[in-house]
Amino acid sequence: MASKVAALLLLGLICFEFAAAQIAVDCCLRVESEKRLNRRNLVSYTIQKAGMGCDISATVFVNRKKMKLCVVPPEENPGVQKIIDFLNKRTQHHR
Predict the structure, then answer these.
(1) Residue 48 CB neighbour total at 10 angstroms
(2) How far apart are CA 59 and CA 44, in angstroms?
(3) What is the DSSP string of the chain?
(4) Cβ-based neighbours of 85, under 8 Å, separated by 6 or more
(5) How many of the other CB atoms lie within 10 Å of CB of 59?
(6) Which of 8, 12, 73, 81 gives a 20 to 30 Å CA spacing to 92?
């Protein structure tokens, strides 16, 4: 009886791992490097890292209309880092 329970647990674990590996990741496929962004229209951001489920590194800004805007990572453009700092300060101020 114990071996049947162990086999079922193992099968369940294998199925769970397989399902978790099939989750689609919403990645930027390309980035805009010269696009001017109006920071007042941006509400949040995430950092996408290459090799962590996506092919390229990017900064993903979300605007008020919930559109995602893919730009270069902050290490490649100081202006992107300034917008991230602005959003972080605005978020802390609203808490």
Answers:
(1) 20
(2) 10
(3) -HHHHHHHHHHHHHHHHHHHHT------SS-BSS----GGGEEEEEEE-BTTTBSS-EEEEEETT--EEEE--GGG-HHHHHHHHHHHHHHHHT-
(4) none
(5) 24
(6) 73
